[in-house]
């Protein structure tokens, strides 16, 4: 159901209320990214004060990933069925309460529980927020502009989280947990007044309870297995059996979805080449970046002896470039199309990662590190909003939440899987009690893997560069079976 707020947008004028709606949704996305980046720097202080082991500290990060990545599919479909506004606001309120709890607890298990709840709530706010945008702003230049601003807020939140965590942790790690709470409350109050009311999906064929259970269980087990694999061993019986169970659950899930009258995921969406490229591109994009950030953070702090704040400032040019480009990306997408921008962005990313392989134990920041950061920042500015636009174009309003949840699942699962692989490669080549040069040499294979992942993303994106007349056909199957040919003709051929 298209929001009444679409009318002024479709005429090219954004009313103050429409701007307010977008800002509320951007605030939630900003909080998700901020929360992910802030906690990493605070881990040593948390472990020291609460007396937590390294393995327990890992679950402060992994608990969030588990809740977020495991429940995104359910979150997206729930938004479609129960109303996007309602789901978004309830989940945002839960996020605020979990943030408050996380800053006040004195127990490791309670802190991990609060992180899981925050991830769970983000699994509902992220797809609901994205689908509110795609159903409020009509497909084309106006939606492209809104999505470029929305995705830029995610990159800005991630970059600011790195800097803020360095500053706040100096006072207390609890501030890093508490900071999102008041921001979430302000966004919640504003959302109650500004967000358009959305009706529940009409004429749906009941609730796909078996699909919801199977889909959620398979994603939770997949993320849990990948997160634990570096610790227990990739070839251990536990890991192999877990992957086998994931495969079994996913197989049953697909069988259930094919027979369900109201599936959690309509499998027809995945017959679209455009949609498949968007999902695989999201996995390669985020997976390569989080692997890169992990290794570079270790390199800067462990080998170069830089402080957390110094490290955050080293990453800042990439985030600043994304933030400064926010108003321009939408018009670039309108002119060149998403597929060209995704391919160009991945090419920049490959070059940026490859250039970083030149680092040594005494790097000149401006000559060695800064070029990589600028190239990666430019890549993020092009790829992330383009992937969001490509995944949601040509999809009917009543399935926007489903597709948004699917895209966010690809992002999170890709991040979890590729980070685990990069970590395993880097640690496998690190001898015990090694000197700084030997440790740096052990990081290089991990950086090569990061570069290869981005190169695979580039190859996937290049398969979509084909004649304009064929591009339109690739998105028709993403529409509802009840859609007419006339309805699918409105899909821009560049996307």
From TrEMBL:
Q: Which domain of life is it from?
A: Bacteria
What residues does the Major facilitator superfamily (MFS) profile domain cover?
21-469
- InterPro entries given in the database record: MFS, MFS_dom, MFS_trans_sf, Sugar_transporter_CS
Q: Which GO terms describe its molecular function?
A: transmembrane transporter activity
What membrane topology does the UniProt entry give?
A: Multi-pass membrane protein
What are the alphabetically sorted keywords of the record?
Antibiotic resistance, Cell membrane, Membrane, Transmembrane, Transmembrane helix, Transport
Where is this protein found? Cell membrane
List membrane-spanning regions.
21-44, 56-75, 87-105, 117-137, 149-169, 175-195, 207-227, 239-257, 278-300, 306-329, 341-359, 365-384, 405-426, 446-465
Q: Which GO terms describe its biological process?
A: response to antibiotic
Give any Gene Ontology cellular component: plasma membrane
Q: What is this protein called?
A: MFS transporter
State the organism of origin: Streptomyces resistomycificus
């Amino acid at each position: 159901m298209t929001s009444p707020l679409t009318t002024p947008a479709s005429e090219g004028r954004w009313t103050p209320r429409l701007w307010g709606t977008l800002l509320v949704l951007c605030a939630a996305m900003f909080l998700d990214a901020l929360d992910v980046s802030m906690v990493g720097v605070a881990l040593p202080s948390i472990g020291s004060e609460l007396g937590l082991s390294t393995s327990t500290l890992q679950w402060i990060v992994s608990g969030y990933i588990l809740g977020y990545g495991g429940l995104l599919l359910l979150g997206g479909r729930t938004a479609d069925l129960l109303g996007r506004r309602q789901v978004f606001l309830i989940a945002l309120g839960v996020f605020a309460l979990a943030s408050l709890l996380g800053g006040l607890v004195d127990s490791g298990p309670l802190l991990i529980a609060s992180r899981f709840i925050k991830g769970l709530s983000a699994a509902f706010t992220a797809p609901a927020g994205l689908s509110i945008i795609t159903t409020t702003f009509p497909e084309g230049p106006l939606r492209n502009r809104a999505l470029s601003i929305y995705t830029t807020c995610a990159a800005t939140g991630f970059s600011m989280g790195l800097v803020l965590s360095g500053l706040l942790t100096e006072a207390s790690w609890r501030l890093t947990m508490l900071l999102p709470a008041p921001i979430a409350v302000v966004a919640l109050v504003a959302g109650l007044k500004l967000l358009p009311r959305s009706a529940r999906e009409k004429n749906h064929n009941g609730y796909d309870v078996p699909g919801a259970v199977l889909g959620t269980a398979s994603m939770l087990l997949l993320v849990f297995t990948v997160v634990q694999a570096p610790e227990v061993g990739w070839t251990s019986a536990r890991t192999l059996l877990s992957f086998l169970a994931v495969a079994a659950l996913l197989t049953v899930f697909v069988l259930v979805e094919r027979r369900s009258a109201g599936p959690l995921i309509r499998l027809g969406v995945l017959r679209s080449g455009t949609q498949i490229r968007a999902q695989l591109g999201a996995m390669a994009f985020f997976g390569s970046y989080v692997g890169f950030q992990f290794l570079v953070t270790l390199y800067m702090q462990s080998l170069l002896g830089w402080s957390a704040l110094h490290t955050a400032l080293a990453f800042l040019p990439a985030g600043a470039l994304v933030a400064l480009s926010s108003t321009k990306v939408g018009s670039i997408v309108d002119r060149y199309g998403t597929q060209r921008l995704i391919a160009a962005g991945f090419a920049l990313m490959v070059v940026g990662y490859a250039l970083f392989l030149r680092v040594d134990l005494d790097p000149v920041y401006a000559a060695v590190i800064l070029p990589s950061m600028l190239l990666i920042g430019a890549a993020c500015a092009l790829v992330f909003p383009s992937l969001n636009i490509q995944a949601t174009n040509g999809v009917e309003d009543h399935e926007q939440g489903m597709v948004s949840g699917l895209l966010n699942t690809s992002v999170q699962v890709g991040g979890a899987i590729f980070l685990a692989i990069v970590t395993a490669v880097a640690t496998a080549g690190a001898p015990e009690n090694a000197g700084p040069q030997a440790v740096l040499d052990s990081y290089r294979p991990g950086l090569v893997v990061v570069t290869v992942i981005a190169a695979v993303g580039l190859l996937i994106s290049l398969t979509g560069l084909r004649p304009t007349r064929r591009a339109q056909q690739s998105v028709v199957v993403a529409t509802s079976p009840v859609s007419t040919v006339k309805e699918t003709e409105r899909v821009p051929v560049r996307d």
